[in-house]
TrEMBL record:
Organism superkingdom: Bacteria
Membrane topology: Multi-pass membrane protein
Compartment(s) where it occurs, according to its Swiss-Prot or TrEMBL record: Membrane
Official protein name in the record: ABC-2 type transport system permease protein
InterPro entries registered for this protein in UniProt: ABC-2_transporter, ABC2_TM
Organism of origin: Streptomyces calvus
Length: 258
């Protein structure tokens, strides 16, 4: 009698493969995840051309590119995963998975992996497109952009699980992500760079979840982030991620909300 030994990686990979198949069948989620983030940067470009960016040391490209990355993380990762977690919970999929070999972290990680990979691929595509179409030079500090992107994916996945904890149905999963998405789009430097905001308001917006991601991606191209600023920005992103992980451990629901 032979036994098959599985590892956390193999179990998460199998779950991610099944989740990717289900994701491909959800046309509404695919549309929001794949096409909306490609359209919204056009409105940011129109708005950027009306701003006095030179005074802040920015160009339309260094405004549009971080915004495009932010849109992709919000729609392809955060919003999409809220729906995934809620629907799988209400369909008792998560409850059944917990009766097998998969651990809680593996279930959430494997379920999030397809959306995370889609978001990563989309961000890379948007970066290449913005660089070509907006005459952006090569990034001055590419490690900052990579760090911001990876932190953003992890944070958005964790925040999605938190939001799903307080979302009752698959229909309401289309609404509950909106507060964070709206606040992020308006206050995290995606539509209006923080450099153009009043100092007090900018200081507050620096503490929003997605602001560190936008700041790091922009800093990757401009190269104007000091070591102190980089450390503070990374610390903010890590703090939000750890807070979200704690909230998931505390409040995430594995069975349907009745």
């Amino acid at each position: 009698m032979s036994t098959t030994t599985t590892t956390p990686v193999s179990r998460m990979t199998s779950l991610a493969r099944a989740e990717l198949t289900l994701l491909g069948r959800s046309k509404g989620t695919l549309f929001a995840a794949l096409f909306v983030p490609l359209v919204l940067p056009l409105s940011v470009r129109s708005a950027a051309e009306e701003m006095d960016l030179a005074e802040a040391g920015l160009t339309p490209g260094t405004v549009v590119l971080p915004a495009a990355v932010g849109f992709s993380l919000l729609f392809a990762v955060y919003s999409a995963l809220v729906g995934v977690f809620v629907v799988r919970r209400e369909e008792l999929v998560l409850k059944r998975l917990r009766t097998g070999e998969l651990r809680d972290g593996e279930i959430l990680g494997g379920s999030a992996l397809p959306a995370a990979l889609v978001g990563l691929a989309q961000c890379l595509l948007l970066a290449a497109g913005c660089t070509a179409l907006l005459d952006l030079p090569a990034p001055s500090a590419p490690h900052l952009a990579v760090l911001g992107l990876l932190l953003g994916i992890a944070m958005c996945a964790a925040l999605a699980a938190v939001t799903a904890s307080f979302t009752r149905t698959g229909e309401s999963a289309q609404v509950t992500p909106m507060p964070l998405m709206i606040v992020s789009m308006l206050g995290s430097g995606m539509f209006v760079p923080l450099e153009l905001l009043p100092d007090r308001l900018a200081s507050f917006c620096e503490l929003l979840p997605l602001t560190p991601v936008v700041t790091l991606v922009r800093g990757g191209w401009t190269g104007d982030l000091s070591a102190y600023e980089t450390l503070g920005t990374v610390a903010t992103a890590v703090a939000w991620t750890l807070l979200a992980v704690f909230a998931v451990q505390r409040w995430f629901r594995w069975e349907p909300r009745r």
